Amino acid sequence: AGYHQAEQERESIRFLLERRCDALIVHAKALPEEELARLLKGSTPVVLINHLLPEFEERCVYLDNEEGAYLATRHLLARGHRRIGYIGSNRGIEDGADRERGYQRALAEFGLEANRRDQVRAFPDEAGGHDAMAEVLRRSPDLTAVFAYNDAMAGGAINMLKDSGCAVPEQISVVGFDDVILARLLSPRLTTVRYPIGEMGALAARLVLHDLDERFPAVEQPRRFTPRLIERHSVRQLSPGSD
């Protein structure tokens, strides 16, 4: 519903409700929580996907974004990296804040403080990743690794590094988030955090099917999905003392 634009999300939901849909699976990131709460309290069964709304946890299917970013950053730390940049999203949604917290939590676990100079936000696509990578390198030329908000930004970062003559991962390691097809097509193939959107969508569908017809079994599994790190070839092990 229109890349996190509140009015477009609102219009899409209104359109579906006016056509008397039996149930809705809603991916909305820009609408205020009180508006989503009113929607969940309505007569049409609704499941939110990729959004955790307090007091409606049973109606929300979501990924632990903070844990995913923590896993990505800790992977770099475990391989000897200590100067790790973060290129994040400039969209005002909770995914970005959660991933930034995960990045900071991993650094803190290793006794490091997140440096604002090492963090740049941009539009979360390939062009944004390219520009953010250029800016973070300008600010912090001694970085050895970068964690990107998503795979598109990671792809843009890798392209920028290659264009500037910087080898990945020999000079700078890169980790993304989502595990979209792009991650397997990049060179080097991207180490990233898997976002299990297919499984999440299937769970949301089972929830609304049970709402509509109790002959469909009730869903007992957790609504919270745990991310998993997918290791490929965009991260190198630093030798002791090399950072």
Helix content: 40-55%
Mean pLDDT: 93
Tell me the distance between the termini: 44 Å
Q: Strand pairing plus helix content: what structural class?
A: alpha/beta
What's the alpha carbon Rg, rounded to whole Å? 20 Å
Total strand segments = 10
Outline: elongated
Main sheet summary: 4 strands, parallel
Secondary structure layout:
Layout (H helix, E strand, L loop, with lengths): L5 H13 L5 E3 L6 H9 L4 E4 L10 E4 L1 H14 L5 E6 L4 H16 L9 E4 L3 H14 L5 E4 L2 H13 L9 E3 L5 H5 L6 E3 L2 H16 L11 E2 L2 E3 L13
Parallel strand pairs: 1-2, 2-3, 3-9, 4-5, 4-6, 6-7
Antiparallel strand pairs: 8-10
Protein described:
The chain is an alpha/beta fold. The chain contains eight helices and ten strands. The protein has helices spanning 6-18, 33-41, 65-78, 94-109, 126-139, 151-163, 181-185, 197-212, and strands at 24-26, 46-49, 60-63, 84-89, 119-122, 145-148, 173-175, 192-194, 224-225, 228-230. Strands 1-2-3-9 form a four-stranded parallel β-sheet, with helices on both faces. A four-stranded parallel β-sheet has the order 5-4-6-7, with helices on both faces. The chain has a two-stranded antiparallel sheet with strand order 8-10. The model has no long low-confidence stretch (mean pLDDT 93).
Question: Could you list some keywords that capture this structure?
Answer:
10 strands; 243 residues; alpha/beta; 8 helices; 4-stranded parallel sheet
What is the gist of this entry?
By secondary structure, the chain is an alpha/beta fold.
